[in-house]
Amino acid sequence: MAVDKATVARIAALARIKVTEGEQELLAGELSKLLDWIEQLAEVNTDGVEPMASVVHIKPPMRADVVNDGEIRDKLLANAPQDARGFFVVPKVVE
Amino acid sequence: MSLIQGETGAWEVVIGLEVHAQAVSNSKLFSGASTTFGAEPNTHVSLVDAAFPGMLPVINKVCVEQAVKTGLGLDAQINLVSIFDRKNYFYADLPAGYQISQYLRPVVGKGQLTIDMADGTSRTIGITRLHLEQDAGKSLHDQHPTQTYIDLNRSGVALMEIVSEPDMRSAEEAGAYVKKLRSILRYLGTCDGNMEEGSLRCDCNVSVRKPGGKLGTRCEIKNVNSIKFVIAAIEYEARRQIQVIEEGGTIKQETRLYDSHRGTTRPMRSKEEAHDYRYFPDPDLLPLELDPAWVENLKKSLPELPDAKKARFVADYKLSPYDAGVLIEEQASADYFEAVAKGRDAKLACNWVMGDLFGALNKAGLDISNSPVSAKGLGELLDLMSDNTISGRIAKDVFAAMVETRKGASAIVEEKGLRQVTDTGAIEAAVDAVLAKEPEKIAEYRSGKDKLFGFFVGQVMKATGGKANPAQVNELLKKKLAP
User: Which of A11, B18, B19, B345 makes the best surface tag, with the fewest CB within 10 Å?
Assistant: First the structure.
């Protein structure tokens, strides 16, 4: 499957990653090869096979509905580039 | 079907709703942080909710239970295997860069709900699905001129997104849908339905078409937070679309916001590359598998739901469908009514609850759960009427005093000496006194002015402070006024 430069630019924009023109060319080639490699899986006939969600056959564990976490604001905000009055602070994002 | 008249003829509105209902739980969908509303910013947040590297989600069993119960209450298919997916988008209040949601395989499939319209008619609206997902954090844009403040307290709270079929044909139907859905959720105890606190939010998909024509392009009005606004937003949006089309324009599929101050909708600034969520199964979460016996048990434990209760009120208490509909809307009102009606005249109980009680609550701005008069108290008042201790007229005064003072009916009757006078001698004396003063009116009455009878009754009641037994007064007056 071929990934072109426009697709690379779009994926980069969605992921908010800055990719230069030159890098787009390079990534288009690499991503195309990756997808070709994965495409080999299409050679296997999977008709009627349930999609595999995990290699371990267990039921997911469930949590009891109790409050036993949180109240760690200082820790959370310790790594924030900026905070004020208990909030994380980011550049203005308005709809 | 209600159509909207445009310049070029009649138009039909087609509406589908997506309701986000916060599941009632102590802790979040995938973490042990509290869900309590109104806490200090970023206090009810765990490392999972803040999406710190390496943190893994573990699902809260009660949130699953709430979703399944809601599905059962909507008469819907319960999917014993469902999948959690990542919905990817970039926003400052979504720390992980994705929301854990359900996409292709939700926990609840097709169901239905019956809406009751003001004119007494009912319609069935299809439910497409219900899925579990995380709420995002909250962005405050008005705290600083160039910065946005982020509070993650809501981040990770369990939401049930309930999607309807595009089955509604008027703003009123959409309002009735939200009302009924909220009522069912509250009966089930799966969502508190508090729209002011954001526990219930509604996205409205609206399009217009010529009756019977093919579906028009729809616009989505996001995050409408009251039933009144749902109705107003849809009405405005339908008229806007009709005008655009009739003026030769076309409708662009877009997301809009409702401005409750102006009563209009306006487009949201379009996010670039919007609606490319690149869903994929969340590798941190195995498929959710439900035990059929567990689901069956939940089904057995469901309370009586609004529709069943309404039917029972009509059948057992002989209430009109309208009265029954009003009483069952809130479970607390229904319970109150039943407590009053038990062993008493149900129609009388209904009139007092819907008339005097609701009126008093409305006036005081109170909810039935903190009513100044308990169901037992109102029952006592009705008993005082039925055993002729007080008349119906005096009962109104006693009720007003009960609301005012929160005292019991008997205590007020005794305290104020409102006990009905049934002593024939005393009433007769009062009747005679009145008649002695009004010889001219008596003559008029006897010459055919029947209407004056009411005047005499009024005078006697006035003379006895309203306490004379009305039936006895009538009887005595008839006897004495006879020519």
Answer: B345
